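About this split. The held-out portion is used to measure sequence recovery: a designer receives only the structure tokens and must propose an amino acid at every position. Recovery is the fraction of positions where the proposal matches the reference. Here is one held-out target exactly as it appears in the evaluation file.
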């Protein structure tokens, strides 16, 4: 199953000495100088409360003195690719230099000619199963779908997908994106159908759609993109989102309201995101420098501070590069024992079904 390599056998097969040496390497002076000459990096779809990105962006700016233009933080993976397409000849502020998208979007963007290759200094410590061999895209972090619950409004937290159909959760359950464009939302629908899908990606997607149709029919589904503000305000007291975002919100809200983060008992679906540089990047050197920063030990630990499991996690752990206090803040490992990593083929198959049939099967316009 895809990326079991990441969790179980990466350390055993990596050349750790070479990886550690690469990790300690600084970005080449020539690249730093070229990036500073460009003066700016344009990112897209990076909420500052997502995966520690706020601190990472600020750290990059402080380290290299570049301006970072943050486009459309709430965009989905599909929106990111469309932003590249729409700005092929644009060297202004609306053209993204880099993207952070769901796994299935990486190969699709490469095939369409939307990306340019770059292999970071720590390339060898990124598992082969989580990167394009030519360097057009590469895994950055992963997490699992969880239930984020406002405990001021929800007395008893749901513990599994079927619980969400309970009438006690009327007008309460929201996705964290538009399922016709957001990888996070697509994976949540897939996760809801895992138990009934029996390992068939298409059937799992169809079962997930049936589940959300029932959720919508019962009045439990709220067609609003859920985020920390809507959770706190009470308009979306239960949000289906990646564990790392939910955990970060828990810290940010500081008990106002209290937040419960529940990893479901079944249908525990892990998702890997990938980084890539636009083939039309107005600031290609700044983009490469950004990648070097993200895949350095400093950048990888920065993602972990945002509760994401960085793709080089096993190599960092083996080299004792992860602060113990960070490990202590993560959910117990037992909660992840049933996690599944859908293959790229499975993701593509389920994505096609969910994006094409959401309107006809569920009929809720998520905004």
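Reference sequence for scoring:
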């Amino acid at each position: 199953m895809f990326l079991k390599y990441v969790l179980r056998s990466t350390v055993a097969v990596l050349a750790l000495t070479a990886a550690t040496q690469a990790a300690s390497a600084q970005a080449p002076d020539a690249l730093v100088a070229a990036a500073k000459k460009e003066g700016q990096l344009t990112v897209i779809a990076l909420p500052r409360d997502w995966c520690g990105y706020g601190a990472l962006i600020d750290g990059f700016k402080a380290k290299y003195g570049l301006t970072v233009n943050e486009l459309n933080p709430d965009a989905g993976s599909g929106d990111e690719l469309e932003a590249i397409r729409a700005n092929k000849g644009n060297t202004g502020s609306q053209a993204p230099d880099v993207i952070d998208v769901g796994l299935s979007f990486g190969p699709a963007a490469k095939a369409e000619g939307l990306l340019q290759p770059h292999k970071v200094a720590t390339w060898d410590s990124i598992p082969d199963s989580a990167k394009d061999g030519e360097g057009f895209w590469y895994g950055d972090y992963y997490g699992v779908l969880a239930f984020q619950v406002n405990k001021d409004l929800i007395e008893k937290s749901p513990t599994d997908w079927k619980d969400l159909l309970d009438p006690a959760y009327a007008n309460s359950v929201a996705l964290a994106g538009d399922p016709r464009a957001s990888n996070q939302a697509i994976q949540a629908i897939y996760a809801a159908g895992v138990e009934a899908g029996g390992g068939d990606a298409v059937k799992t997607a169809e079962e997930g759609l049936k589940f959300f149709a029932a959720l919508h029919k019962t009045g439990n589904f709220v067609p609003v993109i859920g985020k920390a503000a809507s959770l706190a305000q009470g308009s979306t007291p239960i949000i289906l989102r990646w564990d790392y975002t939910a955990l970060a919100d828990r810290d940010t809200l500081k008990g106002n309201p209290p937040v419960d983060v529940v990893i479901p008992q079944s249908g525990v679906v892990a998702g890997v995101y990938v980084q890539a540089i636009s083939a039309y990047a107005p600031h290609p050197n700044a983009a490469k420098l950004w990648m070097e920063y993200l895949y350095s030990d400093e950048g990888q630990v920065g993602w972990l501070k945002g509760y994401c499991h960085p793709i080089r996690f096993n190599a960092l752990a083996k080299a004792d590069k992860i602060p113990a206090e960070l490990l202590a803040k993560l959910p117990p490992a037992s909660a992840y024992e049933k996690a599944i990593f859908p293959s790229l083929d499975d993701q593509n198959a389920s994505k096609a079904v969910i994006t094409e049939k959401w309107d006809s099967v569920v009929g809720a316009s998520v905004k």
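Annotator remark: The mean pLDDT is 90.
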